[in-house]
Design a protein that fits this description.
293 residues; mainly beta; Glucose Permease (Domain IIA); 2 domains; eight-stranded antiparallel β-sheet; 24 strands; elongated
Length: 293
């Protein structure tokens, strides 16, 4: 991006600020993939080099969704770059390059479409990617922290499958729902996107509406719509986290304590899904691992 365009973009993002009035909810992923091309690298000076957000891998024409509920404060071009800004109260999220499908003043819910990813002005050229920003006032913050403290890491498609860090998890998981495994943990071609990537959990087939039970005792970290994961519940278990995705209903709230076997939701087919099933995840030390391994 040219220096003048960069300065114009910074100015627009700051002018789009609104007075803080409460903390934002936990963010959901704006794209169907959770792959990070480039992490947050705050510049040493106000206009210095760096990465003021994160670059997320995407596809040209892919729907870009709001990370949280809020109101659109900017939807247009800055120095030729199509940008959308959403105010969430205490913080704002920014999206580029995105051809807006919303207007200034529109109220949006978490997971609601904002527009579509375009190829021009990609930070990852020649590949397409979304540059997602997070601001509080005039301060740039790490979007990955709002997306779950960087629980997900890039995995080399040609490398070995990730293993849990030594000594960080020795707990036993119960089966959250009865049914056959229809897609195991590991590298695969995604049935919806056609992209070869890590399938970061295990799919268990069951009728929609079947109760989904906590695999272990813990505290609910989040219960919200999460882009391609659909309705998703995350439960923290000390050094580990279990995730339950594509739910038709969520029966818990963040901060709630659950015992092993407590119902956390119902099997569904929300998000990027081809039928009724549970996508069960286990994340240990920031790395997704086989929940049934």
């Amino acid at each position: 991006m040219r220096p003048l365009a960069r300065l114009l973009l910074v100015a627009v993002l700051l002018l789009a600020a609104a007075p803080a009035h409460g903390a934002p909810p936990r963010w959901t992923w704006p794209l169907s993939d959770s792959a990070v091309e480039r992490e947050f690298e705050p510049p040493a000076t106000e206009y210095g080099a760096g990465n003021r957000g994160v670059d997320l891998r995407g596809e040209v024409g892919e729907v870009v969704r709001s990370v949280a509920a809020g109101r659109v404060t900017f939807a247009g071009q800055v120095g030729g770059v199509p940008v959308v800004v959403v105010d969430h109260g205490a913080e704002r999220s920014t999206y580029q390059p995105v051809a807006a499908g919303v207007r200034v003043g529109d109220a949006v819910a978490a997971g609601e479409p904002l527009g579509r990813l375009v190829a021009e002005h990609s930070h990852c050229a020649p590949r397409a990617c979304l540059h997602l920003g997070r601001l509080a006032g005039d301060e740039y913050l790490d979007p990955l922290a709002a997306l779950g403290a960087g629980r997900f890491r890039l995995v080399d498609p040609d490398g070995p499958l990730p293993q849990p860090p030594a000594g960080e998890w020795s707990g036993d998981l119960g089966r959250p729902v009865a049914g056959p495994v229809t897609s195991a943990f590991g590298m695969r071609v995604h049935p919806v996107t056609g992209v070869r990537k890590l399938h970061d959990g295990t799919d268990i087939a069951a009728p929609c509406g079947t109760p989904v039970r906590a695999a272990a005792a813990g505290t609910v970290a989040s219960a919200s719509f999460a882009g391609a994961y659909g309705n998703r519940v995350d439960v923290e278990h000390g050094d580990a986290l279990t995730g339950y995705a594509h739910l038709s209903a969520m029966d818990v709230r963040p901060g709630q304590r659950v015992a092993a076997g407590d119902v956390v939701g119902r099997v569904g087919s929300t998000g990027s899904s081809t039928g009724c099933h549970l996508h069960l995840m286990l994340v240990v030390g920031g790395t997704p691992v086989d929940p049934l391994g």
